[in-house]
Amino acid sequence: MELDNTVDPHAIFETWLAEAKESELNDHNAMALASVDEDGMPNVRTVLLKGHDERGFVFYTNFESAKGREVLTGGKAALCFHWKSRRRQVRVRGRVETVSGAEADAYYNSRHPQSRLGAWASDQSRPLEDRQTLVDRLAGFEEKYGTESIPRPPHWSGFRILPESIEFWQDGEFRLHDRFVFTPSANGWDVRRLYP
To answer: pTM score, two decimals?
Structure first.
């Protein structure tokens, strides 16, 4: 690939994501999300990308969960997409902002009713005595809200990672991989090829 400052990393990402959708067996939009806890220890877990545009990369979660608290407190996060079938990886690092209430409502209301009720029932990341407790909590919220107009919990919303770097990696024969990183600049994006 020939690279210059006119190349848009978001367009490359959209192409790679669409190609991954054709070949990945499950969850082509899965990404590892890294954050840091209050003791400075890193944490990583898999979440699903639920939105992407020129502003950034969006996922949704319980803000009272471990990842929610870490991202809110630290204000920064990193993502890694790995598409084994394509032998590709994309890494994103940047600051984090919360999505608007309207964005969060739109995505929340698109979810299956049981998933919306689950956002109420789960005290995510906290100790759970047994599975039946969770099942009973879900039933209680279904009794309270039904399955139609389930409001979005105040602790449930989305984060947008605002990229300060987007790095693309494509496997090459004999470890001669293609690796290039984009960073924002006054004129759009600076791009550098990196040794693999």
So the answer is: 0.91
